[in-house]
Automatic annotation (TrEMBL), chain A:
GO cellular component, one term: plasma membrane
BP terms from Gene Ontology: phosphate ion transmembrane transport
Protein name in the entry: Phosphate transport system permease protein PstA
Lineage: Bacteria, Pseudomonadati, Bacteroidota, Chitinophagia, Chitinophagales
Gene name tied to this protein: pstA
InterPro entries assigned to the protein according to its UniProt record, in alphabetical order: MetI-like, MetI-like_sf, Phosphate_PstA, Phosphate_transprt_permease
Membrane topology: Multi-pass membrane protein
Keyword Transmembrane helix: yes
Residue intervals passing through the bilayer: 12-35, 71-96, 108-132, 138-157, 195-219, 253-275
Domain of life according to the entry: Bacteria
GO terms, molecular function: phosphate transmembrane transporter activity
Localization terms from the record: Cell membrane
Family label: Belongs to the binding-protein-dependent transport system permease family. CysTW subfamily.
Organism the protein comes from: Ilyomonas limi
């Protein structure tokens, strides 16, 4: 009896340990296999040139269009999402703090919104584009991705703002400051390091998303010059090159995957470090 | 003085405006999709749209059943793989492993959750597809090109691990320490404590984590689409190719304007996805909020 109990205990202990190690190994393997495959195709030329003629048939050139396009798109979307998210996050933590039920309702709602898949955002963005009679463009991509990442950003900001003691708010009011001043001069300043994390997280999510930009940002071999130009993005560049039967092109997809992974890793590690400091 | 009050008024208006835009967003999405797909559901019976297997847009036959079934297959298989793994890993990290390990693992899990899905897709094409074609399928005396439901499910299960694991870790963290200590002091082993206290106490949370993981996996587009083969058929086994809903929408947007009501059909596909996922999300989020409130 006792032996059985002990056996069961150690069985599950080792099983769970093995599973944990397995998960880590798989995840290391993902990064490793992509680097191993793409490193040979990664060159200065690939990083800094636009695709030349016959690029998808094995011609020369690089993925510069996609790198710049992705950065434009993600930065634009993050800025736009910040403009929407900051007021909302401050509003629910300052104005709605007196109405806990509404507050819970809104947080609930944001969590649900977070679950909406990016392809649905993409389809919706496309509907709007058609409705307004516009073409695929960088601007449309920015708006769509901003809608996609706003719930994430708001919830992340909200988590930070929730930790600010209520006394601070009351002290600000007692000194005669308005709600806006309390929001921007006290809460905003206090939460700044956490906000940086929230912004970076949203940025990372935005730069890696493919399904929403597929419909809205389009694809092009050139670096976009204005908001109404279509824009290439890294995820789509990877996807299109990988669908090619030619090995050379496929290898470039792996190289592009390294670039994208690298960007995302840097962003999320920076975000963690900032958060750690606080 | 009036200037300060004016700024206050202005900024609170701006805040309310932003919030309302956000609150209206899902409504607008739902409404937009319903209107855009109206060409389809006005001319075809809803039952036949969902349950019919005939898919040939050029003859105006739109049966979504193969796509719905593919989506369910790939998501269910993925969840079957990742559910026990996540639970065991969470048990190990919170109960058996030294604390520093959990501290190291948390950021690692978060970072992995942030890896773009297209990268998982690339890994799937590189590793999982050959694995299924050369090793797993022959093991079951089956022939497969590798681009199959199983490949999609494997990639999806790996993708959903960080997401689900994170939520289960949070569930275990919220179980009061005293409960576990009480059980241990009564002579229960560590495992018995986990089994009878932690798993029972966290059951709702764990089930909700699985539910949310399911809805997340259901909406996953690009990674699955890269490895699942995209063949319109009702899959007979996990070694067959499938064609899930999100892949249908993503793959055909280019040609949808050339065939009549094809665009409505794709929007109807998105609408189905949207409704299913929102419903699952609302149910499980609600369960979580209820259990947290107690």
């Amino acid at each position: 009896m006792t032996l059985n109990r002990k056996l069961e205990e150690s069985f599950f202990k080792y099983l769970s340990a093995i599973v944990s190690v397995l998960i880590i190994l798989v995840l290391i393997h993902i990064v490793y296999s992509i680097i191993a495959k793409g490193a040979s195709a990664l060159s200065w030329e690939v990083l800094t040139q636009e695709p030349k003629g016959g690029f998808y048939m094995g011609g020369g050139g690089g993925i510069f269009n996609a790198i710049v396009g992705s950065l434009y798109l993600a930065i634009g979307a993050t800025v736009l999402a910040f403009i929407i998210s900051l007021p909302v996050a401050l509003f629910i933590n300052i104005y709605l703090i007196k109405y806990p039920r509404t507050l819970i309702g809104i947080r609930f709602f944001l969590d649900v919104l977070w679950g909406v898949p990016s392809i649905v955002f993409g389809a919706f963005g496309f509907i709007l584009l058609m409705y307004m009679g516009m073409r695929n463009s960088l601007g449309a991509g920015i708006v769509t991705v901003a809608a996609l990442i706003s719930p994430i950003m708001i919830r992340a900001m909200d988590e930070v703002l929730m930790t600010i003691p209520k006394g601070l708010q009351e002290a600000a009011y007692s000194l005669g400051s308005t709600k806006t001043e309390t929001a921007f001069k006290i809460f905003f300043r206090q939460a700044l390091p956490g906000f940086a994390t929230a912004i970076l997280l949203a940025f990372g999510r935005g730069i890696g998303d493919a399904a929403s930009v597929l419909f809205t940002a389009g694809y092009t071999d050139h670096v976009p010059e204005k908001l109404s130009d279509p824009a290439a993005t890294l995820p789509l560049s990877i996807f299109f090159q990988l669908s090619s039967p030619i090995e050379e092109v496929q290898n470039r997809a792996f190289a592009a995957a390294i670039v994208l992974t690298f960007i995302v890793l840097i962003i999320s590690i920076t975000a963690r470090l900032l958060y750690r400091k606080k | 003085m009036t200037k300060r009050l004016f700024i206050d008024k202005l900024s609170s208006r701006w805040m309310v405006l932003c919030l309302s835009v956000l609150l209206l967003l899902p409504l607008a999405i739902g409404l937009g999709l319903v209107i855009k797909s109206s060409d389809l559901w006005l001319t075809h019976a809803l039952g036949s749209l969902i349950f019919s297997q005939d898919w040939s847009p050029s003859e105006s036959q739109f049966g979504f059943w193969p796509f719905i079934l593919s989506s369910l297959w790939v998501t269910v298989v993925a969840l079957i793989i990742s559910m026990p793994l996540c639970l065991l890993a969470a048990i190990f990290l919170t109960q058996f492993a030294p604390t520093w390990m959990l501290k190291v693992m948390r950021p690692v899990i978060d970072i992995l959750a942030g890896i773009p899905s297209v990268v998982y897709g690339v890994w799937g094409v590189l590793v999982i597809v050959p694995l299924v074609a050369d090793i797993i399928a022959p093991m079951f005396h089956n022939e497969s090109l590798g681009y199959s439901i199983l490949a999609g499910a494997l990639v999806l299960s790996v993708m959903s691990i960080p997401y689900i694991l994170n939520m289960i870790l949070e569930v275990f963290r919220q179980v009061p320490v005293e409960l576990g200590e009480a059980s241990l002091s009564l002579g229960a082993t560590k495992w018995e404590t986990i089994k009878y206290v932690f798993l029972r106490k966290g059951a709702t949370g764990i089930i909700s984590a699985y539910g949310l993981g399911f809805s997340k996996a259901l909406g996953e587009t690009i990674a699955v689409m890269m490895v699942i083969g995209n063949v319109v058929q009702v899959p007979a086994s996990v070694f067959d190719a499938g064609y899930p809903l999100p892949a249908l929408v993503a793959n055909n947007y280019g040609e949808m304007m050339s065939i009549p009501t094809y665009d409505s059909a794709l929007m109807f596909g998105s609408l189905l996805l949207f409704i299913i996922i929102i419903t699952i999300n609302v149910i499980f989020r609600y369960i979580i909020y209820k259990s947290e409130a107690i």
